[in-house]
Amino acid sequence: MQPAALVPYECDALLAFRERPLCVVLPESQEEVVQVVRLCHHFGVPFVARGSGTGLSGGSTPVPGGIVIAMNRLNRILKVDVEQRFAVVEAGVVNLDITRTVASRNLLFAPDPSSQPVCTIGGNVAFNSGGAHCLKYGMTSNHVLALKVVLPDGELAFLGSESLESVDADYVGMFVGSEGLFGIALEVTVRLLPRPETYRTVLAAYRSLQAAGDAVSQVIAAGILPGALEIMDHLSIQAVEAAVHPGYPTDAAALLIVELEGEQHQVEAEWRRLESVLKASQPYLLKAAQNEEERLKIWKGRKSAFSAAGRLYPDYIVQDGVVPRSRLGEALAEIERLSQKWGIKVANVFHAGDGNLHPLIMFDGNQPGSYERAEELASEIIDVCIRLGGSITGEHGVGMEKRRFMPRQFGPAEIACMNATRDAVDPKRLANRGKRLSEEFTSAHTLVGAHPLERAGVIARE
Question: Which fold, 196-400?
Answer without folding.
Answer: Vanillyl-alcohol Oxidase; Chain A, domain 3 (3.40.462)
